[in-house]
Backbone:
C-alpha cells in the first residue's frame, strides 16, 4: 500500500520541481510576467496533453494571456484573455476560446472586487 502511494507521488513531486524551474527560466528569457506549464492530469510526463500559458502586461493596467496545448493536433483550442483594470476594484475581461473545428466562443466580463 505505501509503495503504491510513494510510486504515485514521486512523479508528481519531480514534475512539480521541474515545472517550476522551467517556468522561472522561461519567464526571465521571454520577458513575460507569467509562464505557466500545466501537465496532463492522467500522465504528468505526456507533454502532448500539457498546456502552456504566457502572460504579459502591455501597460500598467492592461494584461494579456495566451494559453495553448502542446499537442500538434489542429483541433486544439487557443485561449486569449485581455484584462483591463479600471480601478483597484473594477476590472473588465474579454476573451476568446476556439479551434478550427468549432466556432469561437467570446466572453466579456465586468468584475467588482471589494476587500474588507
Residues:
Amino acid at each position: 500500500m505505501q509503495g503504491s502511494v510513494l510510486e504515485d507521488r514521486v512523479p508528481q513531486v519531480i514534475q512539480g520541481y521541474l515545472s517550476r524551474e522551467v517556468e522561472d527560466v522561461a519567464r526571465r528569457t521571454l520577458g513575460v510576467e507569467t509562464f505557466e506549464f500545466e501537465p496532463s492530469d492522467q500522465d504528468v510526463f505526456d507533454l502532448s496533453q500539457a498546456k502552456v500559458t504566457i502572460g504579459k502586461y502591455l501597460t500598467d493596467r492592461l494584461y494579456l494571456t495566451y494559453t495553448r496545448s502542446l499537442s500538434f493536433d489542429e483541433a486544439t483550442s487557443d485561449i486569449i484573455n485581455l484584462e483591463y483594470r479600471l480601478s483597484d476594484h473594477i476590472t473588465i475581461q474579454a476573451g476568446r476560446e476556439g479551434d478550427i473545428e468549432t466556432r469561437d466562443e467570446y466572453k466579456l466580463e465586468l468584475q467588482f472586487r471589494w476587500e474588507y
Remarks:
- The chain has a mean pLDDT of 82.
